[in-house]
């Protein structure tokens, strides 16, 4: 039971960070979030590859920006 709650909390932190990255208005905020995705803390929260997640979010951001032009 306790382990399950930990996983839910860790997942919620990661989901919120991804949402924050998508909504980030400044390069500084994106850098802070990139640092999180590439951090040891991120690795402690999940087995997910933080670099792949960051790259996916950045591709989404660039594609969205390209479509607006």
Description:
The protein has 69 residues and is an all-alpha fold. It has one domain. It has four helices and no strands. The mean pLDDT is 95.
Element layout with pairings:
Elements lengths: L1 H22 L3 H11 L2 H6 L4 H19 L1
Order of helices and strands: HHHH
Largest sheet: none
- Give Rg in angstroms: 13 Å
Number of helices: 4
Number of E strands:
0
- Please give the alpha-carbon distance between the first and last residues: 49 Å
Helix and strand content put the structural class at: mainly alpha
Give the number of domains. Answer: 1
On the 0 to 100 scale, the average pLDDT is 95
Ranges where pLDDT stays below 50 over 5 or more residues in a row are none
Strand content: under 5%
- The global form is elongated
Question: Keywords for this structure?
Answer:
single chain, 69 residues, elongated, mainly alpha
Brief write-up:
The protein has 69 residues and is mainly α.
């Amino acid at each position: 039971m306790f382990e399950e709650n930990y996983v839910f909390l860790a997942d919620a932190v990661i989901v919120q960070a991804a949402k924050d990255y998508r909504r980030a208005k400044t390069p500084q905020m994106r850098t802070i979030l990139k640092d999180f995705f590439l951090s040891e803390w991120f690795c402690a929260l999940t087995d997910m590859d933080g670099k792949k997640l960051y790259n996916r979010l950045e591709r989404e951001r660039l594609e969205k920006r390209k479509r607006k032009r």
